[in-house]
Specification:
heterodimer; A: mainly alpha; 1 helix; rod-shaped; B: alpha+beta; five-stranded antiparallel beta sheet; 8 helices; DNA-binding transcription factor activity (chain B); WRKY_dom_sf (chain B)
């Protein structure tokens, strides 16, 4: 059961990582749009 | 970040300490957590020991933390850049910016603009009872909210609106700030500006919201007998009195100036011009008639006949 809990937690953190990465990508895209406007 | 200082537009993400495949420099399209694939396969290994799983969990968690830090940094930089851009824009056209603020509030859904994945958007993740999860979840939600607060379509503010200005003489006792231009307007605001003791009135075309044209009317600071009407945008319909020379049909030119600031002087000049023109016309007619021998003869005959009649009576 410990292993199952760990695997579940790992899944959750991993999914969160993925979403945060996507957010970061979007944020970077938006940042670049702004930067191009300024240049 | 202080916007007045020369703005450093690099993101300065400390990626050296980050052991994943994050880009060292922006822009980069692909940002991926390096463990996504690796961990997945490890879940499937049934005989994976608990210590190894813990180790993996720690590693992924630390990676998670670093991504969050990066995200916070990007957000800060984005915000700074955004403020800087807004400042520049307001310097360019402070009045337009001020008026457009209410419309900016009616922005499109920021999540839509950002295109967040649905799972994150709704804040739903896998179920877990651990405190760590709740902490992470809360942090993530907070960061998402932070991100959302700074979002709006950056390209919208770059749409150019055609602006034209019209100067109209007005009775100084008239406080209605009405400029008759053939269109119907709905007043939606009035404010006192720093540079002018007279208030400025804001109007929208009565066909709004389908017609985007706006009008600002204010007395000239130099000459209060002149109303300065500034039109923004182009009517997408015909005016009720289109033939009356509506001001906004001249929108093509950036500024239409009917110089009536020195009205009296100008009118006197106009009168002089007209008088001179009439004199010249009369002289031209006289010379052309005297050069015409038939006309001279007819005139002489008429005068002679008249004289003869008078002498008879």
């Amino acid at each position: 059961s410990t292993t199952t809990a760990l695997v579940d937690e790992l899944k959750r953190v991993n999914a969160e990582n993925k979403k945060l990465s996507e957010m970061l990508t979007l944020m970077c895209d938006n940042y670049n749009v702004l930067r191009k406007q300024l240049m | 970040m202080d916007c007045s200082s020369p703005l450093d537009i690099s993101l300065n993400l400390n990626t050296n300490s980050f052991d994943s495949n994050f880009p060292a420099k922006l822009p980069k399209k692909e940002v991926k957590a390096s463990t996504s694939g690796g961990v997945e396969s490890k879940w499937l290994v049934k005989d994976k020991s608990a210590s190894e799983l813990r180790e993996e969990l720690n590693r992924v968690s630390s990676e998670n933390k670093k991504i969050k830090e990066m995200l916070a940094t990007v957000w800060e930089n984005y915000n700074a850049l955004h403020h800087h851009l807004e400042k520049l824009q307001s310097q360019k056209s402070p009045e337009i910016d001020h008026i457009e603020q209410p419309t900016k509030k009616r922005k499109q859904d920021p999540e839509e603009f950002l295109g967040f994945p649905n799972g994150l958007s709704s804040g739903k993740t896998e179920n877990s009872s651990s405190n760590q999860y709740h902490h992470h979840h809360h942090q993530q939600h907070e960061q998402k909210n932070q991100l959302l607060t700074c979002k709006r379509p950056v390209t919208d503010s770059f749409n150019k609106v055609k602006v034209s200005t019209v100067y109209v003489p007005a009775d100084s006792s008239d406080t209605s700030l009405t400029v008759k231009d053939g269109y119907q307007w709905r007043k939606y605001g009035q404010k006192v500006t720093r540079d002018n003791p007279s208030p400025r009135a804001y109007f929208r075309c009565s066909f709004a919201p389908s017609c985007p044209v706006k009008k600002k009317v204010q007395r000239s600071a130099e000459d209060p007998s002149i109303l300065v009407a500034t039109y923004e945008g182009t009517h997408n319909h015909l005016g009720p009195n289109a033939s009356e020379g509506d001001a906004t049909t001249q929108v093509g030119s950036s500024t239409v100036t009917l110089d009536m600031v020195h009205g009296g002087h100008r009118l006197a000049l106009e009168k002089n011009k007209r008088g001179t023109m009439q004199e010249v016309l009369v002289q031209q007619m006289a010379s052309s008639l005297t050069n015409d021998s038939n006309f001279t003869a007819a005139l002489a005959a008429a005068i002679t006949g008249r004289l003869m009649e008078q002498s008879r009576t």
